[in-house]
Amino acid sequence: MASTITSFLSAKTTKASLFESSFKGTQLTPSNVSIPSVRSNAKQNLSASMSAPSPPPYDLRNFKFDPIRESIVSREMTRRYMTDMNTFADTDVVIVGAGSAGLSCAYELSKDPSVQIAIIEQSVSPGGGAWLGGQLFSAMVVRKPAHLFLDELGVAYDELDNYVVVKHAALFTSTIMSKLLARQNVKLFNAVAVEDLIVKNGRVGGVVTNWALVSMNHDTQSCMDPNVMEAKVVVSSCGHDGPFGATGVKRLKSIGLIDRVSGMKALDMNSAEDAIVRLTREVVPGMIVTGMEVAEIDGASRMGPTFGAMMISGQKAAHLALKSLGLPNAVETVQKMQPEMILAAAESVETADA
Ligand code: AHZ
């Protein structure tokens, strides 16, 4: 079956035909509704998956837990969380928003174990929109060469000429989270909202936080003051407009640090993804913007359900943060060209919109 589809693809989906043909996707054969792997970057061991599972190291017919006191459970959670709050009250980097861009940034940045990173996510469930593809469908489309990021993570995909498809977006999101959250230099504070920024002498120096459920009830209760977290660098990856979207850049505008938040423009996959990566930058001293929040600030097009730009924008934001911290990074030479790049990118956005 896979070879039939591979030959179908090589015959039909050349680079040129992808743009010319009315058919632009993997063919579904009537006999097999789920898409068979066309080319997978993860080797599958069929014989291992067909053999009987090895028995668990305990007796499932007479299972008994070790005893515990309820107060011990409570103290384990409380002590660790409060220790984290104490540790991260003054940290290297705060990443606001744990969608595909924020997670990609945190993954890249946390490779340097000396960098301490707090991820603040207003939702109980980190991942933003990356639990699904578009319109609540499962598959996640990633345009090349961003598939190299998936290779690094070890996320399997079906490979076509110009793009790859992860069979379920949740596979990407759960994989990146499992690797990221295991790192000692990372703490995820979920169900916590960033309500404001710390700004001193025109430089962003941290975030103002509150329990997300408190943030959502400011109009139903009397004043509930927030908490704070200082950071050498803040990365804002709050996604596009919405109840909690573009929070970072909207606040920069309301306090006069930037002139406008144009709002993202209509969809154009091809110009949008390049522009998002190109425009990912330190918008004001101390604050880097990544992911779809970049489109909000610059009036760039949206790309809809293709996720490569979120990954590479997040990666670029991580290297910009490393640069800001005075650490080795992959953007130093690019950054020196920034004014010209921004101009060129803004022109290309305008041309695309015309
Ligand atoms: O809950 C938000 C989500 O998980 C979180 N967030 C937003 N404001 C916050 C705040 N405090 C804490 N004030 C906050 N958390 O930020 C996360 C944003 O994730 P996302 O998936 O919405 O954004 P992204 O930029 O990572 O990915 C965008 C994916 C899109 S949208 C799109 C289109 O509309 O065309 N196309 C793509 C690929």
Write the layout of secondary structure elements.
Elements (H helix, E strand, L loop, with lengths): L1 H11 L2 H6 L25 H5 L19 H18 L2 E7 L3 H10 L7 E5 L18 E4 L3 H7 L4 E2 L3 E4 L2 H13 L4 E5 L1 E9 L2 E9 H4 L11 E10 L10 H8 L10 E3 L1 H11 L1 E4 L2 E3 L2 H7 L2 E2 L5 H17 L7 H5 L1 H16 L1
Ligand AHZ binds next to α5, β2 and β7.
Report on the structure:
- With 354 residues, the chain is of the alpha/beta class.
- It is 39% helix and 19% strand.
- It is built from 14 helices and 13 strands.
- It has helices at residues 2-12, 15-20, 46-50, 70-87, 100-109, 147-153, 169-181, 212-215, 247-254, 269-279, 292-298, 308-324, 332-336, 338-353, and strands at residues 90-96, 117-121, 140-143, 158-159, 163-166, 186-190, 192-200, 203-211, 227-236, 265-267, 281-284, 287-289, 301-302.
- Strands 1, 2, 6, 7, 8, 9, 11 and 12 form an eight-stranded mixed β-sheet that branches. Strands 3-5-4 form a three-stranded antiparallel β-sheet. A two-stranded parallel sheet has the order 10-13.
- A hairpin with a 3-residue loop joins strand 4 and strand 5.
- Helix 5 (100-109) packs across helix 12 (308-324), helix 10 runs parallel beside helix 12 and helix 10 packs antiparallel against helix 14 (338-353).
- The two termini are 45 Å apart.
- It binds ligand AHZ.
